[in-house]
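Input (structure):
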């Protein structure tokens, strides 16, 4: 019984879980990128970055907004997942460093929990891949997840 509880999930379940994680994370990123570009506007975002001491705010604001907006959309479809994962993790590291590191854990108090979870999820997707229900897999990109699933290893 314990073996069943700790054994890897079937490949189809793993792929569905990765799809749900990618879509959920992608939607959150798109919303934050949209906020920077359209709701607040890039000039207000740049001014906010400048006020937080982000270096090169003129470049950092549109770059961050683009990574969130475009990167989030790419995660939803599972395209260029490892690249997007690393870029998102770097953006979240910057958000932690320049905005949240002195404010504790909880986001409601300005803390780093949201950027931490986003960055860690992005790194996890980078490490395990997008799964077989992704554009990367459909285009023949190497899916590390497919290589490790029970169905492909005979487990």
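Output (sequence):
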């Amino acid at each position: 019984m314990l073996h069943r509880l700790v054994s890897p999930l079937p490949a189809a379940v793993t792929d569905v879980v990765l799809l749900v994680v990618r879509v959920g994370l992608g939607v959150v990123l798109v919303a934050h990128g949209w906020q920077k570009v359209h709701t607040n506007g890039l000039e207000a975002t740049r001014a906010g970055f400048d006020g937080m001491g982000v270096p090169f705010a003129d470049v950092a604001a549109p770059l961050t907004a683009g990574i969130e907006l475009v990167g989030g959309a790419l995660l939803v479809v599972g395209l260029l997942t490892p690249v997007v994962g690393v870029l998102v993790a770097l953006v979240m590291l910057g958000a932690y460093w320049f905005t949240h590191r002195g404010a504790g854990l909880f986001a409601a108090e300005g803390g780093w929990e949201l950027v931490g979870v986003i960055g860690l999820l992005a790194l996890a997707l980078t490490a395990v891949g997008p799964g077989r229900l992704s554009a990367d897999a459909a285009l023949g990109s190497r899916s590390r997840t497919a290589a490790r699933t029970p169905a492909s290893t005979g487990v």
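Notes: Residues 11-39 form the longest helix (29 residues). Confidence is low (pLDDT under 50) at residues 145-155.
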